[in-house]
Structure formats: structure tokens, C-alpha cells
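Many introductory courses stop at the sequence. We go one step further.
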Amino acid sequence: MDHSRICVTVTATSMAELRRRRDLQPAGTLVELRLDHVDRPDVAGALDGRRGPVLVTCRAAWEGGRFQGSEEERLAILERALAAGAEFVDVEWKALTPAFAGGTGRDRLVASLHDFDGMPADLDDTVDAMWRSGAGAVKLAVTVPRLRDCVRLRDLATRRTAPTVLVGMGEAGAITRILPARFGSRWTYAGDLASAAPGQLTAARMRDEFGVDRLGDGTALYGVLGKPVSHSVSPAMHNAAFRATGVDAVYLPLAADDFADFLAFADAFDVSGASVTAPFKGDAFALAGSIDEVGRHARSINTLRRSASGWEGRNTDLDGFMAPLTRLVDLRGQRVTVLGAGGAARTVAVGLTAAGALVSVSARRTEQADALAAMTGAEAAAFPPAAGTGTCS
């Protein structure tokens, strides 16, 4: 079984556009054809001339789909797809009748369940029943607001009794899409152009940025830790660096609910290191057993690395900020205002005062500005700074 296979979800409002987008995928790619998005679904037209396997889906509106006809019409479409030889046909588990599951081609049925509100309270019992349904495979897509929910999905996969696809929807579930093998998934889903599900990534990004088809069980895991992190370009940069240097590693977006959530996930998946961004730089400082001098002074770190003795912390914000600035400006005696009082602001204030600048700190929360000013020898200023000043008070 190829755990790294990407199933590309294709949507369109017309059959002609659906076929065109289907045929844009590389030959042999598993393509999910979402017939519920099409105005007038045509099973024969969807399957004719395909260059690779397809998964036919006509999702009911009651489970997040867009089909507007009756339930009888929808199930008839899926039955026709099965009879016409579609490699896979997705049927919602709640609509999977014994007759449907016990008929010819049931090994090509994918019994699916989607929960856009979270995880079912009876998750284990539900999945056990899905595995016993007679379908050839089971798909479970649940919303995961926390990284530790991915741990629960991973643990669920260890006792699977049928081919399974496990998807964590939402920002925190990205790892379930990028590392399907860690979850025992038969394939992983990606969009051809735009997301068809919460948190879904494009196929191009899955292949080119994360290298999903190249990742193995021994691939080291790193990531950017924050809340949110979906906007970060760090995965693109770091994964490109891993490829260029031949390092077997992948850099993931790690959207943690809180710092304890990250630690639970990191321990369960043996995460080797992380870049740390808002709002967790102070938490990372408190955790790390070994911290560099800049990090100790700023009481903030932006890099965690796992070692035999625990987590090590480093602060690279200072070099990243100061190096280009000092090449252009002699900071001695310059009046500088730092906006904000978070982890990066603390580091910047430390660097600027050490370089001889006259620093003021302006933040929405005056108590944070006061604390940072006292810690660094700067001055606290009103927020926002008076227009045209940008100077110490």
C-alpha cells in the first residue's frame, strides 16, 4: 500500500470544466470528482477518458456537500458510478445501507464521516462500526482545534481493521494531510487549485513544498509553532533548504492551542525542533533547560531544539534584526521607538539599547511597556506614539 499517494480533489460547476480539471492532473493520479458541485452531474461523462483512478463523491448537503437534489437522486448517482467501474465511490456512512454495502463492488466503497464541529463523542465506537460496515475503506474527517487531537487520531489508527483515511480538518490538522503514513492513511487529500475542505492544501504545495511523496517513517519533524501559523512562509523556506542540502526532514505548520498542546504533540511525534513565534516565545523560554546569552537577556527565544538532556533554546531574532540595520545606521544616540512588548519586541529593545540607541517602548498594554522598559533600560511611552515624533519622551 502506497501511504504517500495524494488524492487530488477536483470541483467545478460544469461537467466540461470538471473533466478539464481532472485531466490537468499527472497521469495515474488518484482524483476525487466532486459531482455535488456540478449543476447536472453526469457519471458517464465524469469517468469517460480518464487517465488514472478516480474517487467519485456526491456529498450530501447534510454532511457539508452541495448536492441540491433528493437523497434518492444522490444515491442513484453513486450507484451508477459504482456500476460504471469507478475505482472508488465515497458514500456517507450514515447513508450506507446494508444492501449498498453488501452489493457488487463493495470493496470499492469508501464509507465516510465528516464532523465540522469537532470529534464525535463516541469516536472509537463510531469508527469501529464503520470498519464493520463492509466498505472497502473508511474515511474519517473531523475538525481538530488542537494538535493533541492529531495524537488521538494517530492512536486510533494503530488498531484499524480496514484500510482507512484519517483527516484532521482545520489549521491544527495539517500534519494529518502532510504525513499520511504516520496515521496509517491509504491516501491523503489535496485540492487542485482551491481548498474544498477546511485546512486542505493544494496538491502543488503538498508535492513541491512539503514533498509528501518523499517522506518516510524516518523523516525528522520540525515546524513553526504559533497561533496562527497558516500565513507563515517558513515551511516553504525551510523545506527548500532541507531539499537543497539533502536532509531527510520536513518542516510543518504547528498551530497549537496552547504551549502544553505543543508539548503533548511534540512528545507523541518526537518533534526534533521548532521555530517559535507569537504567542509562545515566553513559554519556550520558560521550558528550555539550556538557553543562549541573547535569549537569557531578552527572556525570549524563537528556536527550540530537542537534545538528549531536554529542550535547548536559542534567540536568533536579535541577529536577524540588527545585522541589516547596523550596516546602514550608526545607532549610537539615535532615538528609536519599539512598537509592542512581546517576545520579538523584547529582543529588539535589548539589541537597540546595547547598541547605544535611546529607546522608548510603546504598547497597547501599558503595564507590558513599563515592564519591558524597566528590563532593558528604555523608557515607556504612550500608545500610539504622537504623530511625527517617534522619539523618547
